[in-house]
Amino acid sequence: MDPLAALTSQNQRYIENTQRSSDGLRTNMLKETKEKGRKKSVNSEHTYTGEMSDDMLGDMDPDQFGGGGSKASLFKQMWEEDVETLERNNTPEDTIFDLGQGACLIKGADRNLEYEDSLPMDSGAQTMSERMSQLSLELEQKIQAQEAKEAQEAQEAKEAQEAKEAQKKAQAQKKAQRANTVRIPTGDEKDYRQDNPKSSKDTEISMQPGSSRTSEDDQDGLQGELVKVEWGASSLLDSAQGLLYDDSSKDFLDVSSSSKTNSSKKVAKAPLPKELEDVLDKLICEVPDNCSSNLRHILSRFGKGVLGNCVVNGVKVQVTGSGLLGTLPEIKAINSPGVKKAAHGAYIPQTHTCYVDAGILENTPKGFHPAIYYLAIAWDHILGDGDFASLHSPAVKANFEACRSKMPGHTFPDLLAQSSPIHYFAQCVEAYLSENDCECPIWTREDLYDFDRSMYSYVEYLFKQGNK
Amino acid sequence: MNWIIFPLLKTRDGRKAGEFAVGTISFSEEKKTTIDCPDGNTQNKLNSFFSVPTEVRRARGGPENAITYEWETIFPGTEEYFSERLSRLHTIGFTSQPQE
Lengths: 468, 100
Hints:
- The complex is a heterodimer.
- In chain A, 52% of the residues lie in helices and 6% in strands.
- By secondary structure, chain A is mainly alpha-helical.
- In chain A, the strands form 3 sheets. In chain A, strands 5-6-8-7 form a 4-stranded mixed sheet. Chain A has a two-stranded antiparallel sheet with strand order 1-2. In chain A, strands 3-4 form a two-stranded antiparallel sheet.
- In chain B, strand 1 (2-11) and strand 2 form a beta hairpin.
- Chain B starts with a strand and ends with a strand.
């Protein structure tokens, strides 16, 4: 053998051994070989069947842990054979450490490979460098292709979005052109419509068809009038160009002026149920046609059960001509001389008859509604079975006494209520059933709830029981 | 009798008396109505509220004949007027409680 060649081969082996003795490389190689050896040993016929599991065994190095017996030595032999086989069969793709030998250096975490010119390079390293360059070229091509694809997709998405926006705009324009006429429902504006001559004409409001209110929505039966206000192409609800404000909207939104004068209610109301109409027919007698509907709707608040009980016990409601109540003989007998403002209602216990002045049905009464008030007295009378129930009811008496002694949470509505439990009870019922149908109400439902809560609860209970 | 006046506050469970009193009010035959409020606006408001005539309902008749009422105007300076106006303080946003 040529001594020079022998020397070169010795040098190469030396470099190789030096490189392999490096701790990092040694550890990595050991881990790889152990992993592969373990997998192989599991599948092989000579699987170690000791007490330890395979996983635990895989982590144990036979060199370090030794072990004893024939099985351990067999395993060690098997492991060494595996390592040698792997070293022999290693290709450039398997690991980079075996190919470059001494010429391969690892720098940094990214493991960039650099080849030093001073060191000799064998054919394997050259093949690897060619392979690396080829791979890098392929990688660059792939990256370029991916970038081109992404750019194309982004452009397509942008075009689709633009087309969508254009379509939306076109739809919005169409909607604005197709403005609908809708009904403004009942509520407070009813009063306004009656009092404001401007609104007595049919006014119309244009709203977008997608809005929540349509003419079909007005199913409550309470009539709203057509209100039309031309707001232009864009809706007030459209905030795309900022909120739009139109002064014409105040024509139907301003209800403050109507709260004071809500007289002459000529708004047709929802028809009452037939059963309730039948009971009211029996209860009400001698009523002018122009007052009939209003009186029926007011009295219907008592409920079918209570009204039916009144009818069974012979209660009648009679409407007298406007200002003629004082001419009745029963009223004439008790009126004090020099009365300036006559009453608008009365109750005659002997005949169970309530008298109501027609004037309060044509116009809004002041302070309270006599029709409700005196029917409440009649109801109190029939509940008492010959006497007034409020005079004997512990609940009414207790509340009356609490109000009289000015206990917290108990307040008399007015001087009339202070006079007797009959008037106190009737006023509480009137307040409970009132629905803003008189001017300057003495005692509203809210007042009853806030300032005489226990009486509110009692009246509520009575109505629930009466209308079961 | 002295009455302490509280502001009415709107709560979830209706109107209720506020925590801090705005003043006191009392009635006597000699001095009539005396209102004592540190706040000038409240004092003026209460002064005007307790100085205007008001219409009240008077009960007429009874269970033996007919039950009806009459409207009557009452004027400041009487205990009845004072009591009536005191029970209607809620219309201007106040309420009263008797001083112990």
